[in-house]
Amino acid sequence: MSEFKNLLLEVADGIAVLKISRPNAMNALNSETLDELNTCLAEIEKNDDVKVVILTGGPDKKGNDFKAFVAGADIAEMVNFTAPEARAFGIRASEPFFKLQNMRQVTIAAVNGFALGGGCEIAMACDIRIASENASFAQPETGLGIIPGFGGTQRLARLVGMGRAKEMIFTCDNIDANEAYRIGLVNKVVPKEEMMNCAKEMAAKIIKNGSYAISVAKAAINNGYDMDIKNAVEMEANLFGVVNDTHDKKEGMGAFLEKRAATLTDF
Question: Closest by alpha carbon to 19, among 75, 68, 78, 62?
Fold first, then answer.
């Protein structure tokens, strides 16, 4: 793996824990960090031993965990952007964000502390979001005279509905973890000291299942979401055919009929 200035990566037991670590900027996303994320995720995706990626925020300046997930995009870098530079920054972010959304591994955002602006947006690019009780979410961009530029106007509406997305973006209101859970922005809320264990337990549960089947199911969900139902179900049937011709299908169904534990190996 490459070495990174703004990321911390640990890999064990099929799980990659990836921490965004810019303690002097509350883990804000600048161009360098976005490029590092893009490189790191590309390398992880090639690693067959990694089945789940947990994305979280690194410690604060004092070394304490759970201060911030990602406090947003780096305003110090953005303040003098021209229109073409701002557009390029948004496109730059879309590359690692789409990797999180579409890579074959399952991606879990473990949201500790502030997930504001780009922080909320990168969490939404993950498959699953687990929030600590001290997490807070917002899209505060219109208060700065701009709009969300890392997918926020699109992913937020798809997750919580158009009305709630407009409310969050138009008012710039912060919402706490429980409200985020209530509106469907996060999957689970847990005490902050339990957050990483919860994320790893979920990852371990996922790893027990067929990794290839999960990667195909992920693609089916992502690709079918904006299709009409007829074409989406036809796509699913095609993929259902594909997974029926694998070792994992034969092993999984054979184990079920033989009343034994299955050993699933495919990616």
Answer: 68
Confidence of residue 245 (pLDDT cuts 50, 70, 90): very high
Measure the CA–CA gap between 21 and 56, rounded to whole angstroms. Answer: 9
* Secondary structure, 3-state, 94-123: HHHHHHHHHCCCEEEEEECCEEECHHHHHH
pTM of the predicted structure, to 2 decimals:
0.96
Single-letter amino acid, residue 32: E
Mean pLDDT, the chain, rounded, equals 96
235, amino acid identity: M
β pairing state of 188-190 and 106-111: unpaired
The SS3 call for residue 127 is coil
Q: Residue 247: which H helix or E strand, with range?
A: helix 247-258
Angle between helices 118-125 and 83-102 (to 10 degrees): 30
User: Can you tell me which residue has the tokens 């410690």?
Assistant: 59
Whether 166 shows a pLDDT value over 70: the answer reads yes
Give the catalytic positions in this structure.
121, 141
List phi, psi (to 5°) of 149: -120, 5
pLDDT digits (tens, 9 = 90+) for 45-90: 999 999 999 999 998 877 776 679 999 999 999 999 999 999 999 9
At 137, the amino acid letter reads F
By the 10 Å C-beta count (0-12 exposed, 13-18 middle, 19+ buried), 191 is classed as exposed
Q: Which of these, 53, 105, 101, 55, lies nearest to 211 by C-alpha position?
A: 105
For Cα atoms 93, 95, 97, give the angle at the middle one, nearest 5 degrees: 70
